[in-house]
Amino acid sequence: MADDTTAPRIVIEAGQTGLVLAVGDDGRLHQVAFGPGMADRRPVLPVVLYPLAYPTFGEEPLREPALRVTQAHGELSTRLRFEGLSTDAHAAGQVVRVNMVERVAPLSVSLCFRTWPAYHLLEQWIEVTNDADAEITLHRAAATAPAFAGTAPHLTHWGGGWAGEWTETTELLTAGTKTVASAGGTRPSLYRPPVVVVATDGPATETSGEVGVCSVEWGGDIRFDAETFLHGHVRLIAGHQGRGAERVLAPGERFVSPVARWVCSDAGIGPASRALHRFAREQVIRDGTEIRATVANTWEAIFFALDPAVLSTQVDRAADLGAELFLLDDGWFGTAYPRNDDTTGLGDWEVDRVKLPDGLGPIIDHTIERGLRFGLWVEPEMVNPKSALYEAHPDWVISEPGRERRQERNQLVLDVLQPEVRTFVVGVIDKVLQDHPRISYLKWDANRDITEPGSTSLAPHRQSHLAMDRVLATWDLMAEVARKHPTVELMLCASGGGRSDLGTLRWFHEVWTSDNTDPVDRVRIQWGASHLLPASVLAAHVTRWGNRPLAFGCAVAMSGRFGFDLDLTALTAEEWETCRSAAVTYADLRDLVQQGDLHRLVSPIGTTRGAVAYVSPDGERAVVFAFRLPGDDGTTPAFALPWLDGGKAYDARDRTPGPTDGPAAGKVALVGQILVWPVGEPPVASVVEITRRR
Ligand code: DGJ
Fold it and tell me: pTM surpassing 0.90?
C-alpha cells in the first residue's frame, strides 16, 4: 500500500463546514474529512483507507451507491477516476468542480460545490454526462454522499402525513442503512420533509455536539440513506428519489441533479439552524428579509359557504382585530359545476355567480377600503373529473393508458408536461390577476399525490422522466408567475406543509405549515419545521382546532407568521380582546419573530413543555415563547436563556395575549439568565419580551 499521506488535498471550505478530498495512487477520489472545522485536516492514514468521496455501484459492492448507471452496452458497474479540478468565484464564495471519468465506459461525472462561507453553508450537486454513442440509464445520482467519523451516529428526521407533518424522530444508527424518503410527487414533505440532522457522537443538543444539517432543495420526492460502517462512522447519501424516476440519457446528454445543502456546527444544532435560516432569508426565499402581514383566512371560518354579506362582515371584523390581509380560500369558483364541496368545480376558474352574484370585485374593494390587502386561493395544477375542464380535456391529466384513474380528494393531477396544460395553468393565474388587479396575494394549493404516473408527452421508455420533469415544469410555471406578477405574494400550500422545501420557496413568500392547527400539536410541528425554515415563512393561524383556550392558540401562532382562520363573528368579548391584543402585540414583536435568530430552548418532543426565543442580531432584544402542554405537572419552575450576557442586566415584560395583562401578568420574573414557566392549567403559554437595561 502506497504511503500517500502527503497526497495533494482538495480543500473545500465554507466557514465551519469543511470537506477535504484526496486522490489515491489509483486515481480513486477519497474523502479525508467532512464536518465542522475539518478544512485543515490532513490524511494521517494512506489515502486509500479513507471512504470514497462518491460511492458508485460496482466500485464499493458492499455499500449503498450514490450513483448507479446502466452503461451504454449494458454493464452495471461504474468506476470513476479523478480527472481534474476547476475553481471559479461567485459573488459570495467559490464554485469547485471535481471532474471524474469512468475507467471503461464513456461517462463523465462532476462533483460540483458552491461555498457560502458567511453562512457556513456548502451546496453540492452532481452532473453526469453520457459520452457514449448510445443511451444509458441513470438509476440513482445523489447530490451528496459525505461520510462522518464518529462514535455513536444519530439521525434526526421528520415526517408523518396529512396533519402530522414534522413528527420528529432522533435515533441511533445501528448496522445497516436507514432510509428516509418521500413519495407521491406533488406534496412530498407532507410525508418526509427534505432535511435531516446527522450527529456524530450521540444525540446532539441545541448547544453541543458535532452536527451536519442536510437539506435537499427539490420540489419532488427526496431520499436520504444513512449507512453506518467502520464502527461508528456514517455516510449520508442525499438527493432526489431515484426509484421510479430513472433517467435515460441520450448520447451527449447531461444530467444535473438537484442541490443538497450542508451546514455543519461543532456547537450543536442551534448555530447550524440559525445559519441556514439566515441563508434562506437572505439568499433563497422571495423577499425573504421583508416583514410578513397578519392574515385572516376564510377556510376554517366558513369553508365553502361563501356569501357576500358574510364575507363583508368577516372583513370588517378582521380589520377591527388588526389583520392586514384578508384571504378568500376555496369555494369561490365553478359555474356549471359549482365548488360547494371538494367533489366538483376544480379547474373551472370562473367566479360562482350564485354565491357571489357581483363577482369578486365588491369584496376586494371592501377589503381594500377597510385597509387590508386581498388574497385568493387557487389550485391550478389539479382538476375534479366533475368539471367543465375535464369534460373538455380528459386527456390533460397524468394517467396511464387503460388504467383506472384513481382519485384522491375527488381530483386528478394535470399533466404540466403538455404545453397546452402549462399555458392553461399560467393562464388561470394571469386571468385572475388581470381581472382583479387589486389582488396582491395568492395561496397556491395542491391536494393530491400522483398515481398512474404517465404522460402522453413522454416516449414509452422515458415515462419515468415524469417524476423529475414535472417538478422542473412546475418550477418553470411558478417562476413565470413570479416574474409576471412581481408584487403578488405567494403562499405555498399542499394539503398543509406538503411543499416545504427551499427549492420551491425561491418563488414563494411562505408555506402553510400544516392543516393541523391544534396549537398543542402546532408547538411540536413548528418546532420540527424550524429545523429547515425560518419563522417568517411558517404560517400559523389561530383556529378552533382542538378547542384550546384562544390565549394559548394566539401565543403559539405568534411564534410563527401570525394570522387567524376562525369565524371572527363568533368570538366572545373575552376572546375578541385576546385576539386583538395578540394582533397588536405581534405587530410590535414580529421583527424579532420573523427576522431574529431562533434559539430553541426546551424541546416539546416527548415532553410536556416547549420554549423558543427569537433574538435580535445584536442580542439587545428578544421574545421568548414558553408553552406548558396538557399533562404537564408544573413542577420545574424555570428554564435558562443561554444567549443572555451574564455581565449585563435585562428587563422582562409580559406580552402574553389576553383580555387583561395576560395569564402570566405579574408572574414574569427574570432571575439572572433564568425565566419562569407560565402558571395555570395547561395548555398555557407565556410570551415575554426581554430587553437589555440601559
Ligand atoms: C387544503 C389546505 O391545506 C387548506 O388550508 C385549504 O386551503 C383547503 N385545501 C381548501 O380546499
Answer: yes
